[in-house]
User: Fold these one by one.
Assistant:
Number 1:
Amino acid sequence: MSTTTVDTHCPYCALQCGMRLAPKSAPRAGHAPADAVAEAPAGAPAEVVERPDFPVNRGALCSKGRTAPAVLSRAVRLTGPLVRDAASGELVPAGWDEALDRTAAGLARTAEVHGRAAVGVFGGGGLTNEKAYLLGKFARAVLRTPSIDYNGRFCMSSAAAAHQRAFGLDRGLPFPLEDVPRSGCVVLVGSNPAETMPPALRYFTELRENGGTLVVVDPRRTRTAEQADLHLRPRPGTDLALALGMLHLVVAEGRVDEAFVAGRTTGWPQARAAAMAHWPELVERITGVPVPQLREAVRMFCDAPSSMVLTARGPEQQAKGTDTVGAWINLCLATGRAGRPYSGYGCLTGQGNGQGGREHGQKADQLPGYRRLDDPAARAHVAAVWGVDPGDLPGPGRSAYELLDSLGREVRALFLSGSNPVVSAPDAARVTGRIASLDFLAVADVVLSETAAMADVVLPVAQWAEETGTMTNLEGRVILRRRAVAPPPGVRTDLQVLNGLAARLGWEEGFPVDPEEVFEELRRASAGGPADYSGITYRRIAEEQGVFWPCPETGGASAPHPGTPRLFLDRFATPDGRARFVPVSHRPSAEEPDAEYPVFLTTGRVSAQYQSGAQTRRVDELNAAAPGPFVQLHPQLAERIGVAEGDPVAVTSRRGRAVAPARISRDVRPDTVFMPFHWAGEGCANTLTNPALDPVSRMPEFKVCAVRLEPAARA
Amino acid sequence: MTSTTSRTVVVGGGTAGVRLVDRLAALGAADGVTVIGEEPHPPYNRLLLDGVLAGRYPPEVVELPRPDGPAYLSGVRAVRIDRDDAAVVCDNGDRVPYDTLVLATGSSAVLPPLRGLSGTAGPGSPRLPEGVRTFRTMDDCLALAPRARPGVRAVVVGGGLLGVCAARALASRGVRVVLAHRGGHLMDRHLDPRAAALLRAHLESLGVEVRTGCRVRGLLVRGSGEGRAVEGVETADGSRTEADLVVPACGVRPRTGLAAAAGLTVRRGIVVDDGLRTDDPRIHAIGDCAEHRGTVHGLAGPAHDQADLLARRLADPGGAGGTGRVPLYRGSRVLTRLTLTGPRTGTGPAPNPFSAAGEGAGDVFDLAAFGEVAAGPEDHELLLSDATRGSYRKVVLRDGRLVGGILLGDLAAVGTLARAWEGGEPPPGHPIHLLTTDGGHR
């Protein structure tokens, strides 16, 4: 038996970089992509090996990816179930049977006493497609509760809603990343890949090497903005006005692609009227971006033979995120920069499976295959796959923040998988209080996260390198993460957990523990839906370096569907095949600075940490690079409040107070402070953030709120 | 009325009135709203009229969005407010009852006292001689546009913001324009002589003949009665200039007649408090017709601020969800902005997205100005001038506070300056940063 490497993917962001894993101790004798792979000893950290043939990252990895095996170490993770001891109130070790019994009983008792809808399920955008699919099935078919949503709501929901409105389909990118360097101009809005997905930065570097231009829209001068040909620095919360101002100039300068508008879109006069109400000088007043810079951006965007707009959390995580994304889409449509090669609008999704996670039934209003839960035909199709009566499927439920805010009230028991809302939810202190008021909480996670520490039952589960499953990256490319090492004894996979719980709740069948078996069912459930995976198999994914959905099954008779790397080239996914302009107008953020709270707070990420930090804060090398929270502020603001570099700064909003050291920098506007949100405790940025929701996507306004600053006493 | 919806009547379908309705709709409070607009056109963006006159847009392109919900009465003039009966009486005989009345009647062009000119400006002013037209409304624009042909001779009377825009628009149509300005330099309310000289040079480069210190005292008119037509102007020094078109651009005056006749307090504008209320608590006034703390702004920015604030007050009378904290208007400090767009480098229909052929803005002149730009003896004046690049930047400080400034040609610092001007606080550090930085850029 030869020791060899296993093809897999990074556990973190939506880029899903390809990598190989090798057992650290054993010599590497070669590479075998097949299943016949010798596993590393249980719990032994594997070693990351470059995988240059995978096209998305071509071997490159960031520090998070390189150090990912550290989280496999037994020292940092859970290795057995924990239950809360009634006498001491502490979490104590327990056997799996006891843990699963208590979980099933906790959920069942709540359903009995308070009704099925009082049992909630909260999922995560890091779960594989197989897990997300079965989690949704568990909620809808076993628990029969409408109360399911997931943290992906906090990630891409505004872009998803805007995609649906304009194009009739939501896939993060309508083209592969390899198209980016072949475009003539890319406008990156509120996106900082240099920190959030470093291996993707290469695409933008190549774009410029090829003679294309890069425009970055960001209130901060980020490491990404430093690469830009033009950096626009709008006041936080004004990206919508900025896009409208650019569209206005497109009209004023005669740059509308009338033939495209006439032939491939609907709704232009109304969208144009909304843009004409936002003339450049007004937009300058709202955004603080000088009109000449706005003109320059329009010139770069329109003079290029093809161009793209890519958004990320900056414009999306606002209480007007859907309209903001819609305004950028309108700009693309008016200039004919959509549904054509090397042109279009795309969203750089954040979480590892932010794309797939939203397609297979974790979302409050959706069924597998990106079907709508309120569509009778969709209900009938999925009910048939599951062998249940369509009438027994619950209806749409609450969105993520609304679900969390209902805990302890309407929703009294929660099964939570792969998420850490104590750190990652907006108004985190309030959410923590709601979680504490639950009658029952079970958490399935790899590590004892801040949220898991509050649970009645903690179920330790396997992670990326220890189990096989598919993910769908930000391009809509379905990829295969293979098991490389065995999980430690005492740890089970999420699929085994769901299998055990379903069995205790009366479903002996229907919850397979083999990922490929689950995927086969997912294929059938998604068949005919907008996100059709029915033609995708594990074998094809491995052979083709991933397969882009939609990829319908063609039956044995004809050639297999090739998958769809590029969407909309012939028609958009609307009933009439035309993209829809949606008229949008600028409006202020839910909370604007005032005399009491005079400064904007915006939140974001640093490269060495990931999301709530549950994984990355357990890796020494990453903690050395990014040891803790900080408050980035302009020297003028620092001088005004009287703090020096490194001094503790208290940041207070209407919701809470956080303290972190000052990091003084001219990279941030004088009217704005920035805090990364990866940490719990005193420096938890989400203690401050505003849970005001977008009316369409229900996205909270993470990116803008009003705060006041003062020096804090040194601890 | 079976409905319990409060009836809000907005008189005026211009910048302030339309913005108010748009914001009310956004706040879900547009039901029961009626807009009475005198002009026969759908609401349009008045700021873009020079673009229409220049031929950059067809008129329908500058129409503003009209949210569903409110009722629109177009081409209807409000002639009287019956406060006892809480109703607006219209020229078509309608009586429109209100619970809340908002006056957004705007302003009208002032006609200068010129010999040979009789009649009044605005809609329904047939007695101006043929060829004389103010530049304020869509009707003005539609009347001027077909006459603005290459080779036509025009005199624009008044070198303020409006006159400069009109001259530029006419020149871009090939009209031979004389811009006659009484003052010593163009836009003398906003600019100092050096900035005005750069503006003048720009206009001259576009073929506009600028005459400063030039008072037009009369029109040269042929014919009589309805057949009178303009032939030129006569200036105070007795010289004559032939013209086919004369455009008086001598400022605007708040339209306060309705309010005055209804017994509301009117000074220069309709006097309102910080709640934008007149002395009748059911009647509000916003935009160009309103006078707040002694100021009539006459700019779109403050009109938007007032409309936005009034919308919040009307949508939520209890204030912040019943807390009683109703928002108050404290005034606006905005920059006067002027962008003169040169001829496009390319023309014609849609650009081919696969060619890099030059479409675009062409030669552009950007200007921002605010406050007092003439420094007094005690003031601190800081200026950066770059003749080669045609940029001119200046701030005036008094006791460490910003009191005025000009940016011309290089607007990189406009965000910083606007923030400092709006904030009203002494700018931190050396004031040079106001002119050299943008939002804290290195």
Number 2:
Amino acid sequence: MSIVTPTRAAESPGPFWRRAHLTPYWLLAPAVVVTAVIVFLPMAQAVITSFYDLILFRPNASRFVGFGNYIKLFSDPVFWTALWNTVIWIGLTVPLQMGLGLVTAILLNREFPWRSVARALIIIPWALPSVVIALMWRWIYDPNTGVLNDLLIYLSVVQGAVPWLADPHLALYAVIATLTWQGFPFFAVMILAGLQGIPKSQYEAASLDGASSWRQFLHITLPGIMPVLATAGLLRVIWVANSMDVIFVMTGGGPGYSTHTLPLYAFIKARQNLDFGYGTAIAVTFTILLGSFVAVYLARTMREVEK
Amino acid sequence: MNKPSTLRRILTTDLPVALIVLFAMAPFAWMVLTSLTPSAQIASSGVSLSPAGWSLDNYWRLLGQTSFLTNMLHSLIIATGTMALGLVVAVTAAYSFSRFRFPGRRLLMLQFLLINMFPVVLLILPLFVLMRRFGLLDTHFALILANSTVAIPFAVWMLTSYVGAIPKSLDEAAMTDGCSRLTTLRRIVLPLMVPGIISTGIYIFITAWNEYLYALTLGGRNVRPVTVAIQTLIGEYQIEWGLLAAGAVVGALPATLLFLFVQRHLIGGMTQGAVKG
């Protein structure tokens, strides 16, 4: 593809700043300046704050503690609980979303009369505000009047009402179920796009050779959607790790610390205890931990862009 | 001859799809049913499944006795403002990324992708501290800026791929005819970008409308968007599920309808990782 690169002298003689080779930078300037102010400045502020003992509304007591907050972190049992919860949170939610999304995509890739309607309806969970999702599921999980317990008791799956969100052993899994419900349409849509990119002729050739549909899935479908699965999976790991709004509204991190994930712990520390120094230190630590996934994802995407 | 295969299709495709659709829809459908059942009835006999027990009571209370319409207005201002700011800065940026090859291009593109991966929590705490210092808390402007942290990188990536799909030969022809770069962008490229701008704008609107954590932290008494308002419907002494459900349905409706409208155009941006899930 030819790229328009006008020679400088021909297009715009004149002072340095008006020269044509600066045009792309001028065009980018507004976006770069605004993001610098609203993203990179706060980020720098976050790193600085994390070195201070800063309780908001007691600004006079603020003092520099160096790595003090980070050292405190290592001996904080809640930090380790939250870290472990984050691992479970990502480790269960992402595979569950992906599995359900894969099944959905394969079904939606078949021919049936109401296909486009089904596709539009399945996406709905994804379009709802997270606060609505969280409150909706709290209502469904409600131990006294919630529909889930009614249903399960009616079907005799459980004997009595289960306090889904009040039981420290169940709460995290109940929230994971909600997030699986919220996120599977994303995978379904992405995988469906991948499936539609696989040439039909490959399946026809395989059928002629007598390959069973399971073998076709293993040797044609799966390799065909592998890149999509990898990209979507990585993206999802990053966003599921980051997302705390649903947990915050559903349980507020409780009961006890049983549904604290790292970002939620940082948020609650700052919001409820106004301990911004320590909260920010948790946030920075979490960002560094997440960084490796982000790096892999960025490397993949930039390779695509350069193609 | 044809019958067995239709039956087979219904069993292996239609039925499982119907189950998944039911799974995806049921919680929201339950919410709608809850909102249609008067609160007193929910407490005594549960959610009404038959139309005989339905009424718009909760909706009338929502619109008449709470400030929900004002909250909707706040959300509208914030979402529209975010959309405008995001699109204005992203259009020229996208044109630049798509049409020029210059030193630092890769790095700058990477930067916009990276921003989208930042944990909300890393930004929300310092934004609160900074906005408090500048007296911006509890203003529409604060929330527009906060939502732009997501909207700008997204818009830049989406629009870059849209501009990339517009043939460069059009630009070249215009410039041969003596148009300057900016005139070419305004007269030739911008009109062709309109569909892309509309779907990107709508998506920004939806995310800003649905956003909760920034609204909770940076908003306040004066500026309270719907997402925060819905939660305040919960009631002081006992949870008013009927009223809450009505608020949830009304609050979710604008974004959901818009979403159904643009979903097909978003897949390109999703595969590049620009769309938040």
Number 3:
Amino acid sequence: MKNEIQFICNDREIKTDLHPATTILDFLRKNLQLTGTKEGCREGDCGACTVLVGELDKNEVNYKSMNSCLLPLALLHGKHLVTIEGINQKELNPLQNAFVDEGATQCGFCTPGFLMSLTGYFLSNDTFSVESAINSLDGNICRCTGYASIKRAVETVTNEIKLSGTSSTTETLVSLNILPDYFLMIQKRLAEIKPFINQRANDVLISGGTDLFVQQWEKLLSSDVQFLQRDESTLAIWIEGTNCFVDAQTTISEIKSSAILKKYFLQLEDYFQYFGSLPIRNRATVGGNIINASPIGDMTNFLLALDAQLHLKEKNNERVVPLKNFYTGYKQYDKKENEILSSVSFPLPKKHFHFNYEKVSKRTFLDIASVNTSIYLEEENLQINELHLSAGGVAPYPLYLYKTIDFLHNKNISPQVIKEAAEIIQTEISPISDARGSAEYKRLLLRQLFFAHFIKLFPKIISLEEVV
Amino acid sequence: MKYYDMTRHVRGESLFADDLLVPEGTLFASVFSSSIAHGKILSLDFLDAEKLAGVKKIITAKDIPGQNQIGGIIQDEPLLAESEVHFCGQPIAVVIAETQLLAREVKTKINIQYEELPPVTDAREAYAKGMLIIPPRIFSNGNVGEAWKQCDVIVDGTVETGAQEHLYLETQGAIAFPTEGNGIKIISSTQGPTATQRAACKVLGLPMHQVEVDVMRLGGGFGGKEDQANAWAALAAVSAFVTKKPVKLILPRQEDMRMTGKRHPYSIDYKIGLTKEGKILAYEVTFFQNAGAAADLSTPILDRTLFHATNSYYVPNVKAIGLCCRTNLPPNTAFRGFGGPQAMFAMEAAIYKAADKMGIEVSIIQEKNLLKEEDEFHYGQLAENSKAQTCWNEAKEKFDPGQIKNNIEKFNAENKSVKKGFAFMPICFGISFTNTFMNQASSLVHIYSDGSVGVSTAAVEMGQGVNEKIRLVAAEIFSIDKSKIKIETTNTTRVANTSPTAASSAADLNGKATELACKNLFKRLISFVKNEFNYSPQDKIDFRNENVFCNDEAIGLTWAELIQKAFFKRVNLSAHAHYAVPGIYFDKEKNKGNAFSYYSFGTAVIQVTVDCLRGTYVVDSVKAVHDFGKSFANVIDRGQAEGAIMQGIGWMTMEEIIYNSDGKLLTDALSTYKVPDIHSAPKEIEIHFLENSDNPLGIFNSKAIGEPPLMYGIGTFFALQNAMKAFRPEGEFQFSAPLTPEKVLLGLYKE
């Protein structure tokens, strides 16, 4: 039996037996000659290639924006791929009109990407605001307009579009001419596509692939690849006893909007808005972030401060490794070749806990941290009972600050203690100078962010003037 | 009234070079470049890679049929390195294969051995070693030496400005097609079709009529494709010439970033002298320009630095020295502002330092020295139609800086770890190519027999809206609907000997040429109407909304009917016109003359907030009063101003190009080189069009807009330092741009 990948691109059925690691960007531009999707950087950092991917979920199709340069063909099976050509109608739609009226397009190269992100925003939200609409453009770079006209265009359309309670989002958007009417049939058409059976040998296992496709897209085209995807019948995030479990294939977007996690971390959405961009968060996974082993991984940093455990599976055997002991060197870790990271767990925060996450990068959004750090702290009358503290960008791998944690254990929080702890941090880090900053800067920055934890969590006890 | 190009952009239907369907059999080229910044090539071995299935050829300097030279102004730039390499990323060979992927893959199989030589990456080091591309350039007036004696206050210091990557969203690229008779047609993403044509002709050894260059549109240029599009077009041309097949060469982003030049980094020494009231009497400044490994456009860029040494101020005694230093970096090149921004940054830094020493407000010095009507620049031209003071005064009136200052002081008193700051930024920018001969353009206008119109000019559309402006010019003169007018691709066979689309002047030059061509046709049609319908010479014929009028009455003839009649009566319905900017000249020996057709002015007020705990910051607002002349395309002009400001802010804040000491670029991807995103745009941006401004020298009385507003971004640097000072009043901050979060934090805390 021929192993074909089958999906719908815009209004058209697609069947292909091309290599499953072929990027959607190349497939669109070279095979389908749909050139409205542009190649700007091929690393998910510009958004010129943004497309929407619709996935059948019960009776609905859920759309997400993704960078087509990092999106392999294999993952599209049974899905709806939407490009700028797929939202075009005879006349300009209201979003396109607003962009033209405000001059929100100059050279035009980034424009299809912006419009796809914005269309994705209206397709995937129930309520709209100018601010959140603008946030949905955090993965799109424009070098011409300075964004002012784009913001004006977004403001105009966001204020115009109101969903009615009675019809579905898709129906409403079709009635407003934002989407062509073929969208109404997509759900039915997707339901008819049979599941794909992966018959290839396993060579390279790929999770979200948002870094792998940046670094090795050419190599992947000549490798046997298998894409890890969460079994749709299983949960992404669940609680067992006093532990919270996260499936390794959970995306950052799922983490960011998790009702379970938000109960404990009120500022969760704020923390993870600094992780990549929306299209990246829609693809990048918790497991991928951990196994990628980047010294500045944002998810790893967060999980280290929750004292997370990794559940590694090999056939029916499971091994549990504390995340803080997992890394052994730059991109090196305690995982056997055939082991797969299946899930991550961490003890649920106790009643009186404090948590904070800090990240500074050259550009605040869609940038890799110069330094990031997370803290989990339990105290009673300011005496520290339990503490976990992580730091990224200051060592060859995401660091769990053992010595500092030891020092602070059972101590009373005071400016003097915090200052002393900041000195200890300096002894357990070894930053290097690179494009994200000099070693000197990273040392200073971690000190400041460590202070920031306490200034934010204990504003009455710790202030900036008292610690510097 | 929709802008034509924009309606296609939003549908993804605008075609860029890489979007074109290429003929069956088209080959793909990939450039193999130097991995070291300086050295001798000892051996270059393809290890049978050329014999691999699907590989057509690997081209080296030996395969170039003409001269291996693409230097435009100074002949110092080989297309492909021969025995030596002078920068990391210098092209050495081109792999031509049946697929893009294969062409790229084959590069990894090439074996090259170098003898490494020590690289020079710093302009001052290059100067010390005598590595100047041209002798020092000096612009001066008055007598600086004498003037110091009259000064109450003298300060001096050093200023650094960083490189800036253009980051046009569309990377460099070209497609070359062999044509019959051994010619070549090139579709290129270039700002200068004629320069690209010349470069291709030189390397192919062909006369210019054998090489055609066609440009549809660019996905951004910003100066980066003025001179530096030539190499890729020439390489594609040589590849097509040698293989006799169409060849497509599109640079992947990382190669584009590694191989092409940036805005020049400058290191600058200044000395400024003032009276105790704050009147500037003398300014001496030396610019060490890091030109990179070849001259490229460095020499005219250096000249513009010298022209703009005093920004928007009148200084009676000036000595400005420009040193064009050859280093082992990729040849730096044009970038929006063309050397002007570096000069203005230095001048502002000097004023800030002086104000600091004198203990007075910076704005007092700024305001006191703004150019008045007929003040003389140090190169002898008078500031005519000066709007420096008008813009400043209007900015003061509209934005109430007194109130801003009070609010900031109050905020800073109440907040310990977050501080606000602000700055004024006045600008003055000269409009014209400073190479006088380049200030010419031509336009070819066809009226087709159905009344539709095609216009070809030298202007290249790259997002700045020049095509729309030209369309408006033709529509206005013929009084027909814009939809009847098509702006054609920029093509060297239709419009020859063009100047590049640069210096903010394309709309002026090509708009004026189009105006002339349309007026010629208009006159022809009027006399045809008079003859045809037996009107007298005194009758007033004109066109209104596609109808012919005589003495203010419609004569019952539409534009389309008129054109058809004229065609059958054998009226020439095509016109070509040439425009040369009047009244400009410059003596390059004495460095005196009227280099510019006119000046653009404005004043901005920038406000920022700095998180002094983390060293991060936001730009709260940029408000400007800008002199657009009489804008006839407000949406375009506003967009140019807003976009330029953002690019200026990027240059001053987060955009940091880092080469290591070996001359290797560390920030060679969008993950490491950060340009502003939607969240780093100013929270508020307010552009006021200066009222009652006029400019007979610009098209339809407008003023050029591409470059000048970029320099408002410079104010961001000083606004940030203003906020930093509020946190650390005793701090002595370096004038070193960009002011990244790293430099802010180190500035706030470092002992």
Number 4:
Amino acid sequence: MPLWIVVFVKSAILLFVVITAFAYAMLAERKILGWMQLRPGPNRVGPWGMLQPAADAAKLILKEDLMPRTADPLLYRLAPFISLLTAFSVYAIIPFGTSSAGVWAIGNVNAGALLLLAIMSIGIYGISLGGWASGSKYPLLGAVRSTAQMISYELAMGLSFVGVLLLAGTTSLDGIVSAQQRLWFFIPEAVAFVVYVITAIAETNRAPFDLVEAETELVAGFHTEYSGLRFGLFFIAEYVNMLTISCIASLLFLGGWDAPFGWTWLPGIAWFLLKVGAFMFFYMWLRATLPRIRYDRLMAFGWKVLLPVATLNVIVTAVVIALRS
Amino acid sequence: MSALFWIPAVVVVASALWTVAASKPVYSVVALLSNFAALAVLFLSLSAEFLAMIQLIVYSGAILVLFLFVIALLSSGIAPIALGPDRLPRIVGPASFFVAIALGVVLAAVLASHAPPLPHAAALALAGPAGAPDVFGSVADFGKALFTTYLLPFEITALILMVAVIGVIVLTGNETPYVATRRHAEQTRREVREAIAREGDS
């Protein structure tokens, strides 16, 4: 079979899987938030509300597509697509498992971990341009906040990757997972793991770092003016980014598809999905638990705590590796 | 291979032109973004994968975002720059023409004197995807070159960047709001003290 057919079929399957995962991650979040706040959550459409995502999609598609008169038409329309495109394109290089035939991924890139960082760092343009192009003050404030926040936290996030890359001795995601067969990296790289988790939540603009769309201050932040399907695209991008962050946590720190305690009665892909699911639950748990952090504290925390800690971790890791070899 | 070169090459040139010609600064940022992305593809086709990634992470992900940040803050609201375009001094046109010609001559001279044989791309084409794993341009290869052969230039660059950062702090850091408030308070206190002293005299 020619390569492009394989890639095409894999991409189509993956697109379907990721969109379905998005739909049910959203439903799961509403259910979990509901249970944590002692209410049932969505339960009207279908059994246990299982068809709620379909109903939401129909509603968003049928809604009127509004654009403020002050908006910049080209960028206003372009921005949601940038968000969505970067959110999905990450999945081209994320491996989901391994078998004798090779790695379960569309593309197995040598510099995989770096490419992940590169694509994720471009995702910010969707939010930033969307907020600017709306031509309205709250979206602009949301966009400016998000730009500052993401730049600040991206640095610490990149540094938290470095420790793992040093230990694994490779930048290929496949290689990083196989380097964790003996010991998952969240134990030797505990500091990097904590830094990663914090920065990852800030990168995806989720509570308690969701200042970008702080309802009490900014209406809905950068997507205040968006409606209908365009808003839907931003929404999809946010959840797909959460899934991506969970996949990366699983690959870099939690051993990927490696089974814990030698429990290989579940296939590797199931372990991978379990780890991703656990991380997603953690996200929702945080949102139900923690209040939003104040903006100046967020910036001070990023620059004065996370960045030095991550840098120190890189230095210590490098020294230990140099002494051992 | 040729499509892999020509498509990004056309995008690079077209988006570079758009960057200069765009009417709104934000459009320039978007054009520059596509320029960087296409440039990264070109780097990849030269199998400089680390350079491609760094191009995306540093230039698209950090520097250009800062441009956008500043532009969004300065030109908030959608109105393009209200003032008409300033007429450039008349010398700029011919001058830039001569600079372009000079650059072209230098480039042609370099290409003619030792035309880069592109050993790597040719080898890659021969070896095909099944060929030996290739290290040229990989992260390890790049790092080794940076920390052995090119250590001194690398360190000097780091030093220059450090000087630039200190320079920024010196130029702007004195007038942080905190310092300004402190100085203002200090001045007020002194004035009050002087006023009290004067009142005491009379």
